[in-house]
Design goal:
The protein is an alpha+beta fold. The protein is built from two helices and ten strands, in the order αββββββββββα. The strands form two sheets. Strands 1-2-7-4-5 form a five-stranded antiparallel sheet, with no helix packed on it. 22% of the residues are buried.
């Protein structure tokens, strides 16, 4: 009887250790973890349906950014320079928020980047002629499956009397395909470093 009880307790301890270990593995990923495989997504998960550019005379609320994907796909959006709006909800998504403060959006959503301080105001912001960036992280079933960087530049900046036109492009996009039927772990710091390098590269192009 004592032997059976000892075996039972021993088995319970092994099970408990396994549960704790599994919970630890699932609770987080090392921030520096890099994906083992990357590829260029085709088609790109982020599209810009206004290649001709956007300005105040264009009948659009801003430069549209379309987030593609199915029902299990979501995105987080970071925009550190100015404003991105969700006009369906008549709500400001981001206001020069620091890294880490992100807005979650479903696939199928179109949001609008605008150089205005606020909708309806006459004052635009001065970015010194430098590009503006929108960082988009794609998730599928809650796992990071891709990154996209949108680069927005202006023409007519600093020319008196010239109306500014803003142009957007997907400067860089990468996908993390499943490996052996499982999603790849991708660390937060690695993601931040990827965006920083992509922004540096886009700034020199």
């Amino acid at each position: 009887m004592k032997k059976a009880k000892a075996l039972f307790l021993s088995g319970m301890m092994v099970l408990l250790c396994a549960v704790i270990l599994l919970a630890g593995c699932q609770s987080g990923t090392d921030p520096n973890t890099a994906p083992t495989r990357m590829e260029e997504p085709d088609p790109c998960p982020v599209t810009l349906p206004f290649p001709e550019g956007w300005g105040v005379a264009v009948n659009q609320p801003g430069l549209p950014i379309r987030l593609e994907g199915g029902r299990t796909v979501t995105y987080t959006l970071q925009e550190e320079n100015r404003w991105v709006y969700d006009f369906d909800a008549v709500d400001v998504l981001t206001d020069a928020q620091p890294c880490g403060e992100e807005t979650v959006l479903p696939a199928g959503k179109t949001v609008y980047w605008t150089p205005y301080w606020d909708v309806g105001w006459d004052e635009t912001f001065d970015n010194g002629g430098k590009p503006c960036f929108v960082r988009l992280t794609q998730y599928t079933d809650g796992h990071v499956t891709g990154l996209s960087l949108v680069c927005i530049t202006a023409q007519g900046y600093g020319d008196p009397g010239d109306a500014q036109m803003w142009y957007g492009r997907v400067a860089k996009s990468v996908a993390f395909p499943m490996q052996n039927g499982a999603y790849q772990p991708v660390g937060e710091k690695w993601i931040g470093d990827w965006f920083q390098q992509a922004e540096a590269d886009a700034s020199t192009e």
